[in-house]
Write a structure and sequence with these properties.
25% helix; single chain; two-stranded antiparallel ribbon; globular; 7 helices; 24% strand; alpha+beta
Length: 265
Amino acid sequence: MERNLIGKIIIQGKIKCLSGLHIGAGKETIEIGAIDASVVRDPITKEPYIPGSSIKGKLRALLEKALAINLGIMGTTKRRNIGSGVNPVYVHVCPDLEEAYRCPICRLFGSTGERGRDREGRNFPSRLMVRDAYLTEESVRELLEIDTGLQFTEWKFENAIDRVTSSANPRQLERVPRGAEFKFELVYNVEDKDTLQEDLANLNLAIELLKLDSLGGHGSRGYGKVDIFYENIKAYSIDYLRTGQGEVKEIGNLAESSTLVSFFN
């Protein structure tokens, strides 16, 4: 299937933590008295950040749930097991690029296709790129001043109670404090005009759902409530990117995406 690039749409803004945020980092060693679950940090600045994969994965999962009934995604129908036979994990992934192009989920977020010698070249690369989100300069200054015993973050002490024996199992989690803000950037590749408005409308739906859901781990226990603010949404044609001349279209939010269809005509 031929894929053209007729422009780029850059979406920039801020993610504000309305409650403590925990996106966990791997831990190779266990230390006595150390935090049980630490947050992911930039290896150079040691500042916590939100990986683009975490944002993109959450957006995709929410959109899949929202569109599942309309697309006939029920149970194992139109879903693939990415886990194991013992611990199955079913997600929706279109098996080839033709189906992915017609699917509002895979067209936006990408599809790996099916494996096998006769299925080579069936992947559908994502139209949406999600950058890692880093703390704003103001948040870095504010978090440096807090006195929690941790750099940029806070301790969260919890007790897991055994419902049978009533015994307590204390644990310590690291969180980015409420009020911290992260800069985010999304890049959407405009490949055709026919599906542009639907893609942006679905992206807007996923973002609105995220604001009513949670980001990161332990959302059912109050973690990860966020608000998302747009600062710049700009559309660039290929001609403008090539020559630097011509019009750049700017909109206030994704709900106004219909105006971008005429821009690319």
